[in-house]
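Section 3.1: Structural characterization of target chains.
Under the original work plan, the team committed to producing a structural model for every single-chain target entering the pipeline before any wet-lab resources were allocated. The record below documents one such target. The sequence was received from the expression subgroup and is listed exactly as submitted; it comprises 191 residues.
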Amino acid sequence: MSELVEVIESGHRCFKLYGAGEIVPTTASISTLVEWLNHTPGAPADLIIQTGSQYGPYDVTLRTVEGPPALDSSWEDVSEISVTCEPRIGVDELLDVPADWVEIAGGTYRVRVSARGRTESCAREYAFPEGDDGEDEDAVEEPLEHYLVEVWPAAATPPVVLREDSQFARGSVPVKSLTPLFGPTRDAVRP
């Protein structure tokens, strides 16, 4: 098992799992948490993890495991998807390249993304007028959003939404300046 912990800030309301590719190209959304984003026609799509806050910070743990882990009830939103992986994977902001990577054998993997705090982080951001976050610009905010990205070798299976319990996932939280970057949710199995 390998583990990498990062605190990520972004301007795109998401972060990316680098080194993961689509098994079957699709334009479909997986859930309110995980999505393929293809911003360059003909190029491979990026696996995007959608966040509650536009800017973060997000506390992200990337962990490789030997097989499917037990479902932890402390996570509010949980989705899984099959991917092909390069010999290394990492997490970072959409336009940056990770400074640290986790080495793996290339091949087909299952990825489980678990999240909590998206509702609270979105609410904190929404509580202040545009351009005024109510804080000193030099102050460091503690992450309200926490993500666990678990990766294990597995045959390809359809995407599945294991849980969407947060108010953010259910759409009952107003989202400031959210552009329709992501399409409607479809093509995922829901329990």
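Residues 176-191 have pLDDT under 50 and may be disordered.
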